């Protein structure tokens, strides 16, 4: 498989081929998405909730995410790696935005960074692009600022919100973003947006009209128990499968069934005799 690039993603869009994006947070998940031929891998700040067990993405730090990013990088070959910039690492100034983005490129091999929001964040995106780093925008439900949005809920459900989203999307495109993620917005709003955008648009809870779709690793595989968002489809139920496997191990240990002879090392008989004296 040829390495995915900004150019090949644009070609996919032009040919009407859907773009597949999945999050990954460590070496094994990276090797799986790579083997499955996923186009884009997002090392999401969703790691804060899915990997670290926090209840929002807000506390995620650059250093925490960098460690996960480096592990993902080691598992990828052809997939295009996008790294989320965490809350607090890019908003305050163009300088901070560029400095943070550079860390993900230099220290973890990111091929693009993603940041959330429109408005002044468009300037941050432009500054990072000017520094030579591809940027992916993210509009709609932006979990880093969910408190300001009134919680984790669908966005763009009023005419005013939808109009603002169109303006932000066009501004991010003008700023040079190489792609845009739209999260949790009405399908009809995404459909209005699509003809206006020349860059690849990846949806999550934005309906079927976008150029591609992204899901979170843990959601797609059913790795965590509990409620999932409306936009999630679970393609496996690995939490149950893993509990069953560990449960079976525990049972075999307790019954003395494990380890068997095949899991056990031998010593040459003469060595054993000398040892036992
Ligand atoms: O962090 C994340 O997983 C994301 C996707 C949901 C787009 O930003
Ligand atoms: Na994110």
Automatic annotation (TrEMBL):
One annotated GO molecular function? magnesium ion binding
Q: Where in the cell is it found?
A: Cytoplasm
Q: Which Pfam families match?
A: Pantoate_transf (PF02548)
How, per the record, is the cofactor bound?
A: Binds 1 Mg(2+) ion per subunit.
Task: Supply the CDD domains for this chain.
Answer: KPHMT-like (cd06557)
Give the chief site where it resides.
cytoplasm
Which InterPro entries has this protein been placed in? Pantoate_hydroxy_MeTrfase, Pyrv/PenolPyrv_kinase-like_dom, Pyrv_kinase-like_dom_sf
> What pathway is it annotated to?
Cofactor biosynthesis; (R)-pantothenate biosynthesis; (R)-pantoate from 3-methyl-2-oxobutanoate: step 1/2
Q: Name its co-factor(s).
A: Mg(2+)
GO cellular component: a single term: cytoplasm
Q: Which UniProt keywords apply?
A: Cytoplasm, Magnesium, Metal-binding, Methyltransferase, Pantothenate biosynthesis, Transferase
Known Gene3D superfamilies for this protein?
Answer: Phosphoenolpyruvate-binding domains
Active site annotation, chain numbering: 183 (proton acceptor)
Question: Catalytic activity annotated for this protein?
Answer: (6R)-5,10-methylene-5,6,7,8-tetrahydrofolate + 3-methyl-2-oxobutanoate + H2O = 2-dehydropantoate + (6S)-5,6,7,8-tetrahydrofolate
Q: Where does 3-methyl-2-oxobutanoate bind?
A: 45-46, 84, 114
EC no.? 2.1.2.11
Q: Name one GO biological process term.
A: pantothenate biosynthetic process
Q: At the top level of its lineage, which domain of life is listed?
A: Bacteria
Annotated Mg(2+) binding lies at: 45, 84, 116
Function statement: Catalyzes the reversible reaction in which hydroxymethyl group from 5,10-methylenetetrahydrofolate is transferred onto alpha-ketoisovalerate to form ketopantoate.
What quaternary structure, including any partners, is listed in this protein's UniProt entry?
Homodecamer; pentamer of dimers.
HAMAP family under this entry?
PanB
Q: What family does this belong to?
A: Belongs to the PanB family.
Report the protein name in the record.
3-methyl-2-oxobutanoate hydroxymethyltransferase
Give the species.
Patulibacter medicamentivorans
Q: What is the lineage of its organism?
A: Bacteria, Bacillati, Actinomycetota, Thermoleophilia, Solirubrobacterales
Name of the coding gene: panB
